[in-house]
């Protein structure tokens, strides 16, 4: 369907297609043979990842497959016993808290703030370890389209706006070349906010890289350049998103048949669960 020509265009909701074949440089993040155990339970086994500038990596799989566990291991905040290695190439061998903060930022699911901070106050927290920089705070808010709401109380914002504030806090924290780690950033967010967040992530990846967990494989294929599919704490497949996020692989990961739906020759195929639905349900009984 052609867009309505007289409708206003919001640059924050226009999502360009992911470019999986963009030339990669030296890696910003190298993780090798990561394992996480909680007592006798292995939550993640032998996961390796190499992330380069400009890449958006989507971690995809069913609940409990190890997506959040892997992200927390990459962020250095994992619980349990974590083995393997994680290296951010911008961080020196003897890092300070400031070095680490500039190189990677982690945004958990449903970030909350307990005090009555404004949106700008929350973003300013991202500068705590790296030094005050008002211009960086203003720039981060502008990057997520919230400059006009900077002085609104955080608890008065919508769920999608709160998620964008959390992204801005991470943006303010990172240097160019930093890696943004996001755990389910689209949970409970409406479609328009999903598009705005996706645009912000694409712009951030141009200055560094992004690794995020997602429940929706179709959305992962739409915005990510690369993907890792997990099942039962193990890596089932990884690589270019359009090759990795195939219906057969996802059917194996989720333990349920998945199928592709595409609208138009140039559209990104959406991947959905195969459903057995009676197309002609019986008519309602007459009263």
Structural overview:
By secondary structure, the chain is of the alpha/beta class. The protein has a domain at 26-90 and 179-185 and 209-287: 3-Layer(aba) Sandwich (Rossmann fold), CATH 3.40.50. The protein contains nine helices and eleven strands. The strands form three sheets. Strands 5-6-7-3-8-9 form a six-stranded mixed β-sheet, sandwiched between helices. A three-stranded antiparallel β-sheet has the order 2-1-4, covered by helices on one side. Strand 6, helix 6 (191-205) and strand 7 form a beta-alpha-beta unit. Helix 4 packs across helix 5 (159-173). Residues 1-11 and 19-23 have low confidence and may be disordered.
Q: What attributes characterize this protein structure?
A:
287 residues; Rossmann fold; six-stranded mixed sheet; single chain; disordered N terminus; three-stranded antiparallel sheet; alpha/beta
Overview in brief:
By secondary structure, this protein is an alpha/beta fold. The chain has helices at 67-75, 97-103, 119-124, 134-143, 159-173, 191-205, 217-223, 241-244, 247-254; strands spanning 27-38, 41-52, 56-60, 81-88, 104-107, 179-183, 209-214, 226-231, 234-240, 258-261, 270-273.
């Amino acid at each position: 369907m052609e867009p309505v020509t007289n409708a206003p265009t919001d640059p924050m909701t226009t999502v360009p297609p992911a470019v999986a074949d963009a030339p990669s440089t030296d890696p910003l993040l190298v993780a090798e043979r990561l394992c996480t155990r909680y007592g006798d339970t292995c939550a993640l086994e032998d996961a390796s990842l190499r992330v380069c500038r400009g890449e958006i990596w989507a971690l995809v799989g069913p609940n409990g497959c190890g997506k959040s566990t892997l992200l927390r291991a990459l962020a250095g905040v994992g619980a349990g016993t974590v083995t393997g290695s994680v290296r951010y190439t911008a961080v020196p061998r003897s890092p300070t808290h400031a070095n680490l903060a500039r190189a990677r930022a982690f945004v958990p699911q449903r970030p909350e703030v307990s005090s009555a901070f404004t949106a700008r106050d929350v973003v300013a927290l991202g500068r705590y370890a790296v030094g005050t920089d008002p211009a960086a705070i203003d720039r981060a808010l502008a990057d997520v389209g919230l400059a006009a709401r900077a002085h609104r109380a955080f608890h008065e914002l919508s769920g999608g706006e709160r998620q964008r504030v959390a992204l801005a806090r991470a943006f303010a924290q990172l240097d160019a070349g930093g890696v943004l780690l996001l755990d389910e950033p689209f949970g409970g967010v409406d479609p328009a906010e999903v598009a705005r967040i996706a645009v912000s992530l694409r712009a951030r990846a141009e200055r560094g890289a992004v690794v995020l967990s997602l429940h929706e494989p179709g959305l992962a294929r739409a915005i990510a350049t690369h993907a890792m599919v997990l099942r039962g704490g193990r890596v089932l497949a990884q690589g270019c998103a359009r090759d990795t996020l195939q219906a057969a692989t996802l059917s194996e990961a989720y333990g349920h048949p998945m199928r592709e739906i595409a609208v138009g020759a140039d559209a990104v195929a959406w991947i959905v669960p195969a459903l057995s639905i009676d197309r002609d349900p019986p008519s309602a009984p007459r009263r």
